[in-house]
Specification:
CATH architecture of the largest domain: Sandwich
Number of helices: 2
Distance between the termini: 111 Å
Radius of gyration: 34 Å
Number of strands: 24
Mean pLDDT: 85
Order of helices and strands: HEEEEEEEEEEEEEEEEEEEEHEEEE
Largest sheet: 5 strands, mixed
Strand content: over 45%
Low-confidence stretches: 20-25, 27-42
Structural class: mainly beta
Strand order of the largest sheet: 4-10-9-6-7
Shape: elongated
Length: 310
């Protein structure tokens, strides 16, 4: 073999070795940039940021407001359990901040990964949407999670609801409630009202209210045809109406007397145009519930809140 061919082969071997070193170093660099290096069957993680998950656990799942609301809903006075779950693969010490509407309510220095519980009393919270934010940080990064909680009022007989059906200046005052075997419903053709008798083992519960237009323009009242009542035994019943009108024979319909109309109302007062400052006549909504049970809470369409009875 000539000396020239030997020199060429030596150059080729050096170039191959040099390229191999570059490939190995390049692969190692890329692995480090991605944050891990495979070593046998184990993965070594570098500089992984912490993670945080925020949950708001509201205590009223059984009777949701009929007025459309999304997400987490709590009645004013409820205690919301806030659950913060923190994880960190580097097991670093972490700083944790929980804020409600931008105000820090809990701060932990050098916290360990795990779960933190905070109980938020909504007794002094304003009606509406409240923003909850949890932020976790270490020397490398800061991460956060956010949820919303809508606080609605707990209403009682005698209260006035300033906004009804989304109309800010159309109020609704809860006047009284009645229980009994008969209820009045109307009006039917000719302006007639009919009296209905509850089925055996059942009774009617009647909630009486009045609308008022507090705006400077005429407004129409809402027709409250949907809602629910939660009884003391935990059963839930929808708003009642005669299933076949005056032909609902199972409820023994008959024309109502003037006294029954006066005492039992029988009209929802829906779709009534009220002029500025004008009040409606009394309106009512009716529920049919078992005898021996009592209404506990009511939700009504157009009413942003839960009505507590008793």
């Amino acid at each position: 073999m000539s000396s020239r061919s030997g020199i060429e082969r030596l150059k080729a071997e050096k170039a191959l070795l040099r390229n191999g070193v570059i490939v190995v170093l390049g692969t190692l660099f890329i692995s480090l940039m991605l944050g891990c290096v495979e070593e046998g069957t184990e993965s070594i993680v570098f500089n992984a940021p912490p993670t945080v998950k925020l949950e708001a656990l509201c205590p009223r799942p059984s009777l949701q407001p009929a007025w459309p609301l999304s997400g987490n809903v709590a009645c004013r006075g409820d205690v919301v359990t806030i659950k913060i779950t923190v994880a960190d693969t580097d097991n670093d010490k972490l700083d944790l901040d929980l804020k409600i509407d931008g105000h820090t309510v809990k701060h932990i220095n050098q916290a360990s990964p795990g779960t933190v519980i905070y109980h938020w009393s909504t007794s002094d919270a304003a009606d509406g949407i409240h923003l909850l934010n949890a932020t976790v940080s270490d020397a490398k990064a800061s991460v956060s999670d956010t949820v919303e909680v809508t606080v609605i009022p707990m209403l009682r007989i005698g209260d006035t609801i300033p906004s009804t059906a989304g109309k800010t200046n159309l109020s609704m005052t809860l006047l009284s409630s009645k229980e009994g075997k008969i209820a009045v419903y109307g009006t039917y053709s000719g302006g007639d009202y009919y009296t209905f008798t509850a089925k055996p083992g059942r009774k009617f519960f009647i909630l009486v209210y009045r609308f008022k237009n507090n705006w400077n323009r005429p407004q129409e009242t809402p027709y409250i045809s949907s809602g629910e009542v939660n009884t003391t035994k935990g059963f839930i019943f929808s708003v009642w109406s005669p299933p076949a009108g005056i032909w609902s024979e199972e409820y023994e319909p008959r024309q109502a007397t003037a006294q029954e109309i006066e005492e039992l109302v029988g009209d929802s007062q829906g779709y009534v145009e009220l002029w500025p400052g004008e009040e409606s006549k009394k309106g009512c909504v009716v529920f049919e519930i078992p005898e021996g049970e009592y209404p506990h809470e009511i939700s009504l369409y157009a009413v942003r809140g839960i009505i507590e009875i008793g």
